[in-house]
Amino acid sequence: MTVNESRFDRWRRTAVAAAASAGETRASLIRELAAALAKLVRRVRIPLLVAGVLPLPPALLLVLEGLAADRGGPFFFALAVAGAAPGLMLLWRRRRLVRAVDPVDELAAELGEAYDVAGAWARAGDALEQVRSAGPGLRGAGRAARGVWAGVQLTKDLFERFADLPRVAPFLPVSLQFTGYLCLASVIAAGVLGVLAVAGFGVLLVT
Q1: pLDDT above 90 for 190
Q2: Global pTM exceeds 0.85
Q3: How far apart are CA 3 and CA 21, in angstroms?
Q4: 79 close to 89: Cβ distance less than 8 angstroms
Q5: Alpha carbon distance 150, 159 (integer Å)
């Protein structure tokens, strides 16, 4: 009886040690993944800031032109608001990304929960490698983000659960794709607003 009990205790200790080792490996892997994402966000935060701010000066100029115009003021204001909207939305999304990785430990905790729910631990190492090998700039950020979710089948239920995690949600593929579209829209809006502001200034001089 004593022999059986000692064997059972030995097996239990072995199982507990194996579980603890696996848990430590998972925790370490997720911490590394969170740190890699934080580094990625630090790389893109300046380009996102520039893209977001870009349409704001010409939008402000249009507002000033609308105030100075004898007529057509509301039209100037509408153009300014429409042109500034992509930039303002992009700045808001940038703020969410920056806050998501600060502090990194809280991002790691939510990533651990997300991977656990999705049953994607087997692909966590591959995700880390893709994040580390992603190129610079916004395109590299997009590739890295796709790597994070490469092993996860984002069903509707999983998407809704992840969307409820405030630090994970900004890194969902749909969210990052929309952020990329906002970057493009903000740059285009800056160009269009610049042309309109110059044309409006010309109209004011003539009138």
Answers
A1: yes
A2: no
A3: 27
A4: no
A5: 14
